[in-house]
Design brief:
Layout (H helix, E strand, L loop, with lengths): L4 H14 L3 H22 L6 H7 E4 L3 E5 L9 E5 L11 H22 L4 E4 L15 E5 L6 H8 L9 H17 L2
Antiparallel strand pairs: 1-2, 2-3, 3-5, 4-5
């Protein structure tokens, strides 16, 4: 039987969700981030895994890939991930920063076409105390529909128990979004 740290983290998070004490919740989230980082070290980096890339990729260019998040906080949740294994954002090269600068407007065009919004949240977490759970820098881009409330969006974004997509569901999102990326310049 293969040990699956992610299932353990999910089960422990269920307990956290039931707790109302904010301090305990914060400590637990930091603990889970650190535990997840340890599992990444033991299992290998998911953003360097060819199977993960193949299953989740919607776009790539010189230095970055855009992936569908396997546990999206909201519909359209994408990850901009450098191709080179880089742990922290400050370790990225000027070329990688420049490439990210070019990718974000492309992602926004996709948000406009697929989700009818040009508003989004971009989030990147550096280190376990910031909530980084994968030891490979990645930028979350989350479209924010105009009909949504800001408090509601933040509750979804920082939900410690997002619903994980099945492989088939991930493929549906990938197949839906790829054509939009092909249309963008």
């Amino acid at each position: 039987m293969k040990f699956n740290v992610y299932d353990l983290i999910y089960r422990l998070n269920v307990v956290v969700k039931k707790r109302k004490n904010m301090a305990r919740t914060i400590v637990t989230i930091v603990f889970f981030s650190a535990l997840s980082m340890c599992s990444t070290i033991l299992a290998g980096c998911p953003f360097c895994d060819p199977a993960v890339i193949e299953n989740q990729i919607v776009y790539e260019d010189a230095f970055f890939r855009v992936l569908v998040d396997h546990a999206p906080r909201i519909a359209g949740h994408l990850l901009a991930v450098p191709k080179r294994h880089v742990v922290m954002a400050q370790e990225m090269t000027q070329e990688e920063w420049s490439d990210l600068h070019n990718i974000v407007p492309r992602i926004v065009q996709v948000f406009q076409q697929a989700y009818n919004t040009d508003q989004y949240i971009m989030l990147e977490k550096n280190g376990p105390f910031a909530g980084q759970s994968v030891l490979h820098v990645h930028f979350h881009l989350l479209p924010t529909p105009s009909h949504s409330s800001l408090p509601g969006i933040f509750l979804k974004i920082f939900d410690p128990l997002p619903k994980k997509l099945r492989k088939e569901e991930t493929q549906e999102v990938v197949l839906r979004l790829r054509p939009y990326f092909e249309k963008t310049n």
